[in-house]
Amino acid sequence: MNFKKIIKNSEPYLIAEVGVNHENSISLAEKIVKQAKMGKADAVKFQTYKADKLASKKSPYYWDLKKVSEKSQYKLFKKYDKFNYSHYIKLKKICDFYKIDFLSTGFDKESILFLNKLVKFFKIASADLTNLILIDQMIALKKPILMSTGACNIQEIKKINNYIKRKSPKTDLAIMHCVLSYPTKLEDANIQIISQLKKTFKSRIIGYSDHTMPDEGSIILYESFKAGAQIIEKHFTLDKLKGKKNNDHFHSMDFQDFLKLRKSINIYRKIFGSLKKRKVLKCEIKSRKNARRSIYSNGFLKKNTIIDKNNIIPKRPGNGISPLLYKKIIGKKVKRDLKDDHQISFKDLK
Question: Is the dihedral of CA 5, 231, 127, 102 positive or negative?
Fold first, then answer.
């Protein structure tokens, strides 16, 4: 399995990042999965962790306190880590029922081993890009890896890319542009980095993991697709919970946002076309004939009048002598009287 096969029929591969927006409720999680399918997402992604293995009890916050008031990473993560492995198995079955891919980010070795049976590929969160213990565990299981690059510089991304390539040449890696700031300001989104990543890592699938506030029309995600993102990941929640504080709801999109994105992308695909040599399209044939011009008489022309630039005029439609050929009839005489506005043919000339 590799990312080209995974995203083959759905580019961009759209991931609804539920994270912990389920608030420890399987019922709420199912409603979100259902709406993700309604929004034409390809996958729903959760997070598999236990706070005790993720953060120390003195770990400070890194988010906007106006949106999430908790100042302790540990306490916030502890609040939403109530799911055990049986819950994730249920979530996998729910996703299968709605025919949408189940994914989850594992944050420790035990979670990765468990998820290996449930997911198509692993996800390295931005903050774990330097966690070689976790990355080694993923590499050992021979699955594709999706890697977010928030708070990284290009040298760090290259280092991990080369590390994975060296340790496991057959492991397929997809690299996601990401800004590790909740929420990400528009001026920090820096979408053009996607193009840089595509040039730097030519053999890798490049994507975008977004933390900006939802915008009308899903413009940010649409522009990331235009920049070359083949996988797009965005926090996702139930429409009724969109904007809710003290969780990832506040910067999450809902199914209507996803539908707008898909609509924009479908329109873009239709209008963008291809780089094939320009040719006359089927839809242009009638226009080509009727909107182009032919040579017409400009006023009454008596028999034996000599054709010059002043007594002819190019007019529509273009089913007679093309103006491209006007020099071929200059100096010729007309065989008979021609009325004004007569479409001249070679038979009229001698």
Answer: negative
In this structure, are residues 107 and 51 in contact, taking their beta carbons and an 8 Å threshold? no
Neighbours of 236 (CB within 10 A): 29
> Is the pLDDT at 214 greater than 80, yes or no?
yes
User: For the chain, what is the total number of helices (H) and then of strands (E)?
Assistant: 12, 10
Task: Render pLDDT for 136-150 as a digit per residue (tens, 0 to 9).
Answer: 999 999 999 999 999
What pLDDT score does 219 carry? 94
All residues at 6 or more sequence positions from 141 whose CB lies less than 8 Å from its CB, including other chains:
112, 113, 116, 122
| Mean pLDDT of the residues in the chain | 95
Task: For residue 122, give the 3-state DSSP assignment.
Answer: strand
Residue 116 confidence class, pLDDT cut points 50, 70, 90: very high
Tell me the CA distances in angstroms from 47 to 85, 122, 125, 131, 341, one per residue in order. Answer: 11, 11, 10, 17, 76
Residue 338, beta-bridge partner list:
301
Q: Which amino acid is at 274?
A: S
* DSSP secondary structure letter of residue 307: P
Ordered by where they begin, the domains of the chain are: 7-272 (3.20.20.70), 282-348 (3.90.1210.10)
Walk across the sheet containing 13-19 and list its strands.
Answer: 101-106, 43-48, 13-19, 231-235, 205-210, 173-178, 145-148, 122-124
Q: What does the alpha-carbon distance between residue 293 and residue 337 come to, in Å, rounded to a whole number?
A: 22
Task: Identify the burial level of 148 via C-beta atoms within 10 angstroms of its C-beta, where 0-12 means exposed, 13-18 middle and 19 or more buried.
Answer: buried
Give the distance, in angstroms, between the CA of residue 211 and the centroid of all CA atoms in the same chain: 15
- From the list 176, 261, 270, 177, the residue with the least C-alpha distance to 221 is 261
Separation of alpha carbons 13 and 206, rounded Å: 11
Residue 231 has pLDDT above 90, yes or no: yes
Q: What is the pLDDT of residues 67-114, one digit of tens each?
A: 999 999 999 999 999 999 999 999 999 999 999 999 999 999 999 999
Collapse the DSSP code of 256 into the 3-class scheme (helix H, G, I; strand E, B; otherwise coil) and give the result.
helix
> What digits encode the pLDDT tens for the residues 282-303?
999 999 999 999 999 999 999 9
Query: How far is Cα 96 from Cα 91, in angstroms, rounded to an integer?
Result: 9
